[in-house]
Write a structure and sequence with these properties.
Elements: E1 5-9, H1 28-31, H2 34-37, H3 40-45, H4 47-63, H5 68-79, E2 83-87, H6 93-96, E3 102-104, E4 107-114, E5 120-122, E6 143-147, H7 157-166, E7 169-173, H8 185-191, E8 195-200, E9 212-215, H9 218-230
Helix pairs in contact: 5-9, 7-8
This protein binds 2'-O-acetyl adenosine-5-diphosphoribose.
Length: 232
């Protein structure tokens, strides 16, 4: 089904589930340098450190529960199957709230990727070490989380571009608009004639590109907006 509503989510939608954002005060990138943990070069230099960083994030994500914002989007998707959720988040909180039509454009903590042979597979253990051999090539040294790092291409960009071209409504939730290509989706949707709405704790660098910005906590803004769309 062609999506008519495209929703882009970022770390802000999971903040009230207890998962840290990246650029707010106390955010992940104020504590660790992204060049040390979120690039292919960092993994080549110190794979054990990079795996340990994502082991900690995986443990936090699995311990977290979806909040009313994730639940409201799952309710919207159930009532409007022409909804597509594109998330930059590597947690599984949309799915755990019941959403099915989710693109993880920055990958997932519940997946592994072999840097040696490119094989991808689901990852259920809590930690990842080089003794975990790749089921594709049998080697262990390239086993890494299946998350997209800086300098790598996000997933499903063609499918997302098609959805942005065809949608009537584009909504960005809990994302600062600092990272491309996701930050450019609003312009793409607007150019294709869609209405654009931003739901975020505060105004962002890209707020001026949206027709409307509502500021507040996702756990309040998102359920209220979903009720508006569904007319209930
Ligand atoms: P950021 O940390 O850059 O932005 C989070 C946004 O959420 C900010 O604008 C906050 O104001 C807002 N926010 C915080 N709490 C909120 C709440 N309770 N309700 C609503 N909004 C809230 O995170 P992202 O935009 O997701 O990529 O970052 C994009 C990408 O940068 C990430 O996917 C990650 C990161 O580097 C990679 O690692 C490749």
């Amino acid at each position: 089904m062609t999506p008519r509503i495209v929703i882009l989510t970022g770390a802000g939608i999971s903040a009230e589930s207890g998962l840290g954002t990246f650029r707010d005060a106390g955010g992940v990138w104020t504590q660790v340098r992204l060049e040390d943990v979120a690039t292919p070069e960092a993994f080549a230099r110190d794979p054990a450190m990079v795996r340990a960083f994502y082991d900690a994030r995986r443990a936090q994500a699995r311990a977290a529960a979806p909040n009313p914002a994730h639940e409201a989007l799952a309710r919207l998707e159930a009532a409007r199957p022409d909804t597509l959720i594109v998330t930059q988040n590597v947690d599984a909180l949309h799915e755990r709230a019941g959403a099915r039509n989710v693109i993880h454009m920055h990958g997932t903590l519940d997946g592994a990727l072999c840097a040696a042979c490119g094989h991808r597979w689901p990852w259920t253990p809590e930690t990842m070490t080089e003794t975990d051999a790749c089921p594709g090539c049998g080697r262990g040294e390239g086993v890494r989380p299946d998350v997209v790092w800086f300098g790598e291409t996000p997933h499903d960009l063609d499918r997302i571009a098609d959805a942005l071209d065809a949608c009537d409504l584009f909504v960005a939730i809990g994302t600062s608009g600092a990272v491309y290509p996701a930050a450019g989706f609003v312009a793409e949707a607007a150019a294709a004639g869609a209405r654009t709405l931003e739901l975020n704790l505060e105004r962002t660098e890209v707020s001026a590109l949206f027709e409307e910005t509502r500021t507040g906590r996702a756990s309040e803004l998102v359920p209220a907006w979903v009720s508006e769309v569904l007319g209930d």
